[in-house]
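User: Structure please.
Assistant: Input sequence and predicted structure:
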Amino acid sequence: MNYKLSISSWDELEINAIKRVISSDQFSMGKEVLNFESMFANKIGSNHAVMVNSGSSANLLMIASLFFVHDKSQRLKKGDEVIVPSVSWSTTYAPLQQYGLRVKFVDIDSETLNLDLTQLKDAITNKTRAILAVNLLGNPNDFNVIKEIIKGKNILLLEDNCESLGATLDYQYTGTFGLMGTFSSFFSHHISTMEGGIILTDNEELDHILRCLRAHGWTRDLPNQNFVSGKKSDIYFEEAFKFCLPGYNLRPLEMSGAIGQEQLKKLNKFINVRKMNAEKFLYIIKKYPFIKTQKEIGSSSWFGFSLVLNSDSPVSRDSLVRILNQNQIDCRPIVTGNFLKNKSLLEYFDYEIFGYHENAEIIDANGFFIGNHHVDLTEELLYLDKILNKTFRDYVE
């Protein structure tokens, strides 16, 4: 490809981190993961970080933990209503179904591609128990408005921040505005640890529950005095195989923890380069009045670049995607497009569709995105401009 959707961000530092783990002969979750968790929490500004094997697992544990928390004001139960946007990844939604929650979908905003805040306000009822806000493609939701909407209401705010590591609103990192926030460190994301995910929270009880659920439901990874089992036994033989919650095995590898430490050291540089690439992309797209892209809220970390064709576009989305692919420019739908069309939702979810979802349908039919990377994309973006200019030359000045 002349312009790839994603590329590796590793160099000899990550390779040496892998070698360090191999030399240690400790491959399952251990001190490297603990070190990464501490670094991540300090970097993003949260009391606790729990690493898991994927961003999808992070979403699963975030939802699961709320069924076991003692504080009734934070606890979820089957049948509770959770509001979500109709555009996100499948595993934003799947844990809600798996835990018997009722999912209420609201449309996205046509400019930001995040929650339509007017529709969100109208969708809230006395049945609403939580809002799961998704920061799409690096772009923060306007949490100042969301918090004003839910002020005085017993509604939990959660964040799926898997695409938006490094984004900020009023100098605060996304993923820290709600009770919990999730992150992904999959290959194509802002940092890459092979596979990986992180949950952030300031709540110590939730931190303990997450750690227990992450590894079989046992108490082995908890402090001696904890919110799950109380005081642990001093007899390791007894304590090491005590199971208190119906858990999973979602532990990350030591390699992922070691790699994550090196990647996190580079995060500021990665984000700065992505922002410089975004400036160049936005300059190019201004030439094409029938193409619009995501409106930035706060400071986006620019996961990728969305392109949505207006109704007056002389070329259809499918035709443009075909032209780009023929010219070795990689592109894909905006996340999953309109998730309301998916078979898994229609057959398995307890759900409600609030209002009309015109904007989700527009990006589903007329939108796609191309990659952004941690390296200078001047050549790739000039090449994109060349292909777009050739495609639309009879329609632009």
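The radius of gyration is 22 Å.
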